């Protein structure tokens, strides 16, 4: 306290000067119209600039929500396109509607938005941490997708976080098919580049083209049918020579992954079990 008083006593003339300057400036702008208008214009200009910057910052942060909405819409549109493509294919081939009806059983799946907390692309077994967990209804073996394509499968879950087995993991094994051709295979990643994986067990009689689209097969309760995986870039013989191995350019950019969607597979699991029960019943009656 003593030091403060000594400081004020030593520099009291400066404080008096500052106070008088403030009073004089206030009187100048208040009682002189020209100076007052200059001050008003300048103040409005500064305030306007501040508000403009504030709006820009707010708009920037709102882009996170916009991006999430666009990604969600992209997934839905992609699914609808795949449904229509399959329906057209079946109709032009004059086949029955059984495949289409089975496909449409997946229309009601629930998706839960989540954000990537941690992610790796350079390990042999890459994992992704998401900010959603058991409290949000997440359970192991749920599929995870982005606005561009498949991401992976939920592996472990805590109360508020979940670990995803990325497509870029040596243990990843996702059932896929060549769109509109029906050939089935399993997607694997053998280390290396983060934008390529391999589709194994494609039969030798398959008719293949570069840029054929690879999508999820729907033959499990993890992913609905028709979710984009990537495109074929090359075809090789398998090690035993009995099948093809396809090099696939992945649709998802794992190095920039931020927003994802977790697929709640409960409705799909129930419907798949119903389908299987119906098929078993038909076989028993035969």
Automatic annotation (TrEMBL):
<dbReference type="Pfam" id="PF04085">
    <property type="entry name" value="MreC"/>
</dbReference>
<feature type="domain" description="Rod shape-determining protein MreC beta-barrel core">
    <location>
        <begin position="116"/>
        <end position="263"/>
    </location>
</feature>
<keyword id="KW-1133">Transmembrane helix</keyword>
<feature type="transmembrane region" description="Helical">
    <location>
        <begin position="12"/>
        <end position="31"/>
    </location>
</feature>
<keyword id="KW-0812">Transmembrane</keyword>
<comment type="function">
    <text>Involved in formation and maintenance of cell shape.</text>
</comment>
<keyword id="KW-0472">Membrane</keyword>
<keyword id="KW-0133">Cell shape</keyword>
<comment type="similarity">
    <text>Belongs to the MreC family.</text>
</comment>
<protein>
    <recommendedName>
        <fullName>Cell shape-determining protein MreC</fullName>
    </recommendedName>
</protein>
<dbReference type="InterPro" id="IPR055342">
    <property type="entry name" value="MreC_beta-barrel_core"/>
</dbReference>
<dbReference type="InterPro" id="IPR007221">
    <property type="entry name" value="MreC"/>
</dbReference>
């Amino acid at each position: 306290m003593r030091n403060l008083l000594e400081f004020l006593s030593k520099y009291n003339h400066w404080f008096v000067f500052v106070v008088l300057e403030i009073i004089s400036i206030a009187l100048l702008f208040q009682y002189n119209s020209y100076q007052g208008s200059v001050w008003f214009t300048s103040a409005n200009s500064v305030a306007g600039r501040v508000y403009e910057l504030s709006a820009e910052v707010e708009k920037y942060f709102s882009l996170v929500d916009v991006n999430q909405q666009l990604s969600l819409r992209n997934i839905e549109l992609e699914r609808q396109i795949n449904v229509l493509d399959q329906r057209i294919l079946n109709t032009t081939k004059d086949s029955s509607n059984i495949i289409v009806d089975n496909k449409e059983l997946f229309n009601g799946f629930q998706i839960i938005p989540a954000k990537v907390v941690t992610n790796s692309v350079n390990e042999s077994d890459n994992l992704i941490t998401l900010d959603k967990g058991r409290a949000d209804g997440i359970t192991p073996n749920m599929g995870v997708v982005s606005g561009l394509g498949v991401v992976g499968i939920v592996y472990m879950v805590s109360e508020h976080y979940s670990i995803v087995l990325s497509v870029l993991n040596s243990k990843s094994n996702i059932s896929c098919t060549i769109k509109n051709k029906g050939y089935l295979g399993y997607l694997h990643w053998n280390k290396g580049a983060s934008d390529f994986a391999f589709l194994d067990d494609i039969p030798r009689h398959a008719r293949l083209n570069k840029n054929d689209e690879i999508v999820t097969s729907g033959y499990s309760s993890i992913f609905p049918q028709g979710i984009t995986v990537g495109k074929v870039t090359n075809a090789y013989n398998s090690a035993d020579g009995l099948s093809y191995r396809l090099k696939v350019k992945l649709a998802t950019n794992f190095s920039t992954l931020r927003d994802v969607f977790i697929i709640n597979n409960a409705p799909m699991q129930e419907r798949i079990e119903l389908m299987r029960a119906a098929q078993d019943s038909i076989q028993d009656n035969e």
